Amino acid sequence: MNLFLWSLSFGTVLSAATCDNSSGQTACGTTCCSSNQYCESAGQCQAISSIATTPTSTVENPAGFTTSININVQRKVLRFVCSVKFPGAILIAITPHLFSFLRFIPNAELWDLFVGPVETAATRTTVSATPVATSELIPPPPLYYPSFLTGAQVPLVAKNESWKFPSGFWWGVASAAYQVEGAAADEGRGPSVWDVFTHNAASKSTLFGDTGDVADNQYYLYKQDIARIAALGWDLPLFLQNSYGGWLSPDVVDDYVAYAKIIFSRYGKKVSRWFTMNEPLTFCDEYPYASNYFTAVTIPEQQQPYYCGHHVLLAHAKAYRLFKSMGLNGTVSFKNNGGYKVPLTGSSEDAVAVQRAWDFNEGWWANPVFINGDYPTHLKSYLDTIGLTFNETEKALINGTADFFAHDAYSASYYMAPDSGTDACTSNSSHPLYPGCYNTTNTGYNGWLIGPASDPLSEWLHDAVDWLPAFLKYMQDTWPSKGGIAITEFGFAEPFEYQKTLLADIRTDVRRTLYYKQYMEAVLMAISEGINVIGCIAWSLMDNLEWAQGYHVKFGMQYVNFTTGERSYKASFFEYVNAFKLYAEDPVVPVYVK
């Protein structure tokens, strides 16, 4: 089985060494660093005295008390920068390539100050994999038979002998750390911004008050989850956000690269494909953050997503260059996201709206990386006015920093000009659609939806897979990559699944099953037409915390009983696997992306 590491975005990494934390030891690869050392790279401890320190502030501390400064760039790897004993105060020692934060707040205090009590799971030790029962591997009958008066049924599926997935095509399923892991405050983990979002009602980040405290408890059940896959053949540390504004500050770039260096050092020889960023459009659009929970910044709210994006691109590029400089074998990209953009009408204004939408969404990230190191035309016109520009050195740094084009492609929508016209919008910074100055809808001018709707809580998502071949062709023509195109997320929220109570009813996910069947056929059609699609990853492995929609929106190909943690395959999982049994040249070996 190939191993993928999805998004270096300050995630969770398991440590190989078991160390005595009570005595100040921390894990560093297969060894343990003592209380007067820090982990420079896997297996290499450095004395704290060798660090060029920047004493910036002190906090009062009981005499003789020893404390580990937990910076939580990642769980279990960077457990501290330093651990020091002073008679009356803690002096913050900062490595040059890490933080310039001014004061020390212990993890427990961060949880108390910003999050409050967290829920814990019944299982809090790693569970070994157990064989999947044969009875669980019995596929359902096809869910898309027509009925006949005679009672006979003929399946609406037949193998197209001209289609095939090429040799080396990789496929699998995906999940994301905060959405599935749980173990929120276990083993030294500090809070992330999403812990704050989900625990504080004023942030209004989840519709039903759901949190990721326990989620699917995959932190302890991951071995079982991998076994279940084999049987079938965006979060930011709160410390960084409150230190300097997170992705709004250029300081985050070098912090991210330092984090990437540790991950590459530890796993560079084990992981074959890497994604530096997961959907930066999504997490940058989360800005501005609520000032009552996070450090206030002076950047105007309207501009904050673009400052975030600027620093994301630089961080990605530096991480990519670092990977290549380390001589590692593997490919690196980032995960773009967005749907196909269909003009509502044939008007020239709607055509402009479509191009603006490409520029302010996919092109925001893809143009700098795949074309010329700089922003696309319409976006650049706006960013120039707020001083977000790349110099020639930065353009050269960014250009060409992806080995293949990776995109999360779920659906399609119609796009059109603002009611007042594009010019009226672009000349008025107070316009509600400024600076993008385009509008979108899922209903065509003829009154018909672009495709069947998913769950009402995911109103953005419709089954519009008929547009997928055109979408893939647009990607290949607009942002050409010698490495080809990987579809790194796609999936469907079964309508009203959260209201179902019978397990058999939940597992019979008809709409999602049909979506996967048609989606894979659309991919095969695109390949037959010359589009270089190299792989696809379905979202998601199992039901999980779907961010603002909590646990009420279901994308999972496995049902999860959130009381017992038990997983059950849905019909859609079998349909997805069946596509590769029908059309794959290579043996059916799924991968797991996280």
Automatic annotation (TrEMBL):
Keywords: Glycosidase, Hydrolase, Signal. One of its GO terms (biological process) is carbohydrate metabolic process. Residues 1-19 form the signal peptide. InterPro entries: GH (IPR017853), GH_1_N_CS (IPR033132), Glyco_hydro_1 (IPR001360). It comes from the Eukaryota. GO terms for molecular function: beta-glucosidase activity. Pfam families: Glyco_hydro_1. Belongs to the glycosyl hydrolase 1 family. PANTHER family: GLYCOSYL HYDROLASE, LP05116P. This is Glycoside hydrolase family 1 protein. It comes from Sclerotinia sclerotiorum (strain ATCC 18683 / 1980 / Ss-1) (White mold).
